[in-house]
Amino acid sequence: PPAPLGFTDVSLNSRNTYEVSRRRSAPEHLPHGGTAPAEPAPPSQEPAERARHRVGIAGAGSSFAEFFTRNFFTKRTKELKPAVQSAPGWKLFGKVPPRENLPKDSKIIQQEYEARTGRMYKPPPPSARRKNIEFEPLSTTALILEDRPANLPAKSVEEALRHRQEYDEMVAEAKKREIKEAHKRKKIMRERFKQEENIASAMVIWVNEILPNWEGMRATRRVRELWWQGLPPSVRGKVWSLAVGNELNITPELYEIFLSRAKERWKSFSETSSENDMEDAGTSVADREASLELIKLDISRTFPSLYIFQKGGPYHDLLHSVLGAYTCYRPDVGYVQGMSFIAAVLILNLEEADAFIAFANLLNKPCQLAFFRVDHSMMLKYFAAFEVFFEENLPKLFLHFKSYSLTPDIYLIDWIFTLYSKSLPLDLACRVWDVFCRDGEEFLFRTGLGILRLYEDILLQMDFIHIAQFLTKLPEDITSEKLFSCIAAIQMQNSNKKWAQVFASLMKDNKEGDKNHSPAPKS
Amino acid sequence: MGSPEEDYNFVFKVVLIGESGVGKTNLLSRFTRNEFNHDSRTTIGVEFSTRTILVGDAVVKAQIWDTAGLERYRAITSAYYRGAVGALVVFDITKHQTYDVVDRWLKELYDHAEASIVVMLVGNKTDLAQAREVPMEEAKMFADNNGLLFVETSALDSTNVEEAFETILKEIFYKVQKQKQRSSQSNTVSLASENPASTAPAQAERRPCCVAL
Q1: Bias regions of kind Basic and acidic residues — which residues (chain B) (predicted)?
Q2: What is the torsional sign of CA B119, B124, B129, B132?
Q3: For a Cys-Cys bond, which of A51, A60, A487, B88 suits A314, CB 3.0-4.6 Å?
């Protein structure tokens, strides 16, 4: 069942934040795809009815887009989590959210207990014995200071002393931990603040200096460095569009034409499909219909946790339109699974027609064309080139994978097809896209190596099935700082040859060997 | 049922195949994690899951390869059939089209997997009985005629999911046992994989008794 609209503020984030926000609003089980977290919608948002119409959404697009760019990737992500973490007993919606993953110290447990029962812990009147202890942890730890019940032999002096000492140690330890945590929190706050400032100042530079002089500045060292830091969300879509370019010269008018063609097809499809058996239809027609079916099927399976592309969600029709128009524009490629993720990310950052233009041009790049046409021999070339740099950068892990005959297709197919938007948290995927727009296909493979490097130590401990499982379902707590420092450490140089040269020589080497292999693109 | 992850006697590689959207990923998540997700994400390429079960007193680790159903991906995914000792060919009982193409899936499978692979036909989504398009008798007959195991399941309400996987794993197990006896009688060792580890990663694992049919 579709989810209503007024929840975008909580669920529009990376999977991590989404989990947290979900816990806050509905701590127990949420029905799958059912009711959305009941957070009030910000007043600026469009009512669901209006957003459902495609025409309506074009208007709503800008306010949504603004909303995203302001809140989507920056502040919200970071603000939600600490709020939950740092206020342990804080009651939200009458229930204390479960926090099973957080390390609990005894004090937090105590506070939680109080919050649940409503009882307050009343410290016993301080006895003379304990007067000098100023830090009193609210837990059973202090019990060891008590005398034994009358029916048991009393503590000896040494024992009492030892207990006292142990207790003091525990208290000191707890205090140290608290101070350390407070420092850590402060540091995180400082870093976040700095980050936001950086984004704000970067935005000014992008808007005032770079974008007006795009062609002249895009390749300068300064711009490239700034680019690596991640694009400010408010200029992200614009920069992506400019960087991807429009070789195909698609205009918004052309998009409208293909869109109306797609709509005609849907109409005739829905009229005939009920009684018509697809078996008998000619292959090309069957394929086209299968494409339409597939798009419908896949849209609900694209970022399901965001609840915005699903039926009834604000971007459902938009995603449908972009993908449908594309299958009409490029019947030779058609719809292939994985595309819905790419289109979705573009829709989150661009207006409808611009999203389509970027989508079509992006898929026209050689690497994307090879993958989406499932040109097997070309894909193998890409994997082979990847392995050249894999061996160069991570020789130990490379051998480890080799020993299990674990080939890169196992994990790269998903990563490359969806440009990491399915495998990485969304905000991180967008940062990968940023640099992908700057550096081209080579960066996709560099990112893959960065991921392998980031997890190298763990992967070296794993066998085939665990590696395969791990890489096809990456940990959700992956952070951009760590990942990007690992990507930065990957050298895309192989004995003075760069990616493009390595790839070109692989293409030349095997020109004869693969003629019988390559599946022809569908006509 | 569950025993410690790493303590197993056998590893069986099983592939899940069938059209896109028939519920392969949910069948698997129901079996391995007892989870169901209405909007699970599209599978691209292949995903993996494992679960260890007891067959008799042998500990069997199922290593399940969940493949993408999209036709265009078959060029890639068919490579993953190699070394598999079992396959679940899944269709959706509410979509006749997904049943009509079972033939093609089987051909694809037999083209790339060992001939002795144990295959089970699975009609999924029995919870949507009111929308049924494929009669159970029809599918059952097809399975019988083609030497396939057959079961109808619902990953959503859990019906028969456990049974489906257990049945096929048991069947594989007995087949392996039989072959073991045969090979020890004839004094030939044919339990090693025909192709080296590359095609059957299951064999490359740490301690398992190697299995290839």
Answers
A1: 204-213
A2: negative
A3: A51
The answer to whether residues A385 and A495 belong to one domain is yes
Instruction: Report the chain B residue with the minimal C-alpha distance to residue A375.
Output: B75
Considering the domain architecture, whether residues A349 and A424 belong to the same structural domain is answered as no
Structural domain including A341 reads 236-271+287-364
Pairing verdict, β A493-494 and A497-498: antiparallel
pLDDT tens digit string along B180-198? 888 776 544 333 333 333 3
Q: Is A286 on the interface with B (CB under 8 A)?
A: no
Instruction: Locate the chain A residue with the closest alpha carbon to B207.
Output: A463
The residue with tokens 């010269």 is A249
In a domain, residue A139? The reply is no
Which of A298, A341, A469 shows the shortest C-beta gap to B49?
Answer: A469
Structure tokens at B55: 């067959």
Q: Which residue has the tokens 């994990």?
A: A411
Same domain, A322 and A397: no
DSSP lists the bridge partners of residue B209 as B10
Give Cα B47 to chain centroid, integer Å. Answer: 13
> pLDDT tens digit string along B12-61?
999 999 999 999 999 999 999 999 998 788 899 899 999 999 998 899 99
**Residue A328 within any structural domain of the chain:** yes
Q: First and final CA of chain A: distance in angstroms? A: 37
Distance of CA A146 to the CA centre of its chain: 52
End-to-end CA distance of chain B: 25
Does residue A85 belong to any structural domain of this protein? Answer: no
Q: Provide, as residue numbers in chain A, all residues whose Cβ is less than 8 Å from the Cβ of B97.
A: 278-279
On whether the CB atoms of residues A492 and A446 are closer than 8 A, the answer is yes
- Contact in structure between B191 and B180 (CB atoms under 8 Å): yes
Q: Do the Cβ atoms of B45 and A414 come within 8 Å?
A: yes
* Total-model pTM: 0.71
B92 bridge partner residues: B124
User: HSE-up of B117 (CA within 13 Å, CB side)?
Assistant: 26
Which 8-state DSSP code applies to residue A95?
B
Q: Which of B37, B72, B203 to mutate to test the interface with A (most CBs of A within 10 A)?
A: B72
CB contact under 8 A, B44 and A297: no
Model ipTM? 0.84
Q: Does a structural domain hold residue A31?
A: no
Q: Is A269 in the B-facing interface, judged by CB distances under 8 Å?
A: no
Q: Which residue of B has its CA nearest to A468?
A: B48
